[in-house]
């Protein structure tokens, strides 16, 4: 099993473990969202046995968001990540001299490929697309809630409906009709062309 590099994982685990133990119980279900643990998903599952739901977003939208929010690439281009994740899957190495949008595209493409590989090894995980959720949130969330044992209530439906409004940055409100191709208003023609050329290196299947 591939693991997140210890120099990245170990300090995080040591810092969070005592905090997690002191947290009060939150009932029968605890829902945790993470976009920072993609390289350690299988490690988390092996240690804590959660039900896993993977929500995959259009890569152009992900790159556009990273650029807009100035999300750092951190250690994603490091030799350790290349050795543990990229090279075993035959991925090309990133170009440190490439424009930032192409370097971000490499990071996003690499993460998407790694997660897809993990999904292929775990048929028990649930996999849905962000585009599906935007197109029909009630129709997708309802069966998904039932599958993972969560209650599908009027309160949940009202919360989803109320979230369909303007929001920015790290807020969780968005006009869902605008999300599927939000990248079109965020990326220039040159950026789109360069990003697509990099993402072509990371075929992820259907």
Summed up:
With 206 residues, this protein is mainly alpha-helical. It has helices spanning 6-22, 41-48, 59-69, 79-86, 100-121, 130-135, 137-148, 154-162, 189-199; strands at residues 53-56, 126-129.
Please summarize the sheet with the most strands: 2 strands, parallel
Helix content: 40-55%
SSE pattern: HHEHHHEHHHH
Strand content: under 5%
Q: Rg to the nearest angstrom?
A: 18 Å
What strand order characterises the main sheet? 1-2
Question: Quick check: average pLDDT?
Answer: 89
The separation of the N and C termini measures 24 Å
For the secondary structure, the number of strands is 2
Structural class per helix/strand content?
Answer: mainly alpha
Shape: globular
Residue ranges: pLDDT <50 for 5 or more in a row?
A: none
Oligomer: single chain
Please tally the helical runs, counting DSSP H or I stretches of 4 or more residues: 9
Would you write up a description of this structure?
The chain is globular and about 50 Å long. A two-stranded parallel sheet has the order 1-2. By secondary structure, it is mainly alpha-helical. It has nine helices and two strands, in the order ααβαααβαααα. The chain is 50% helix and 4% strand.
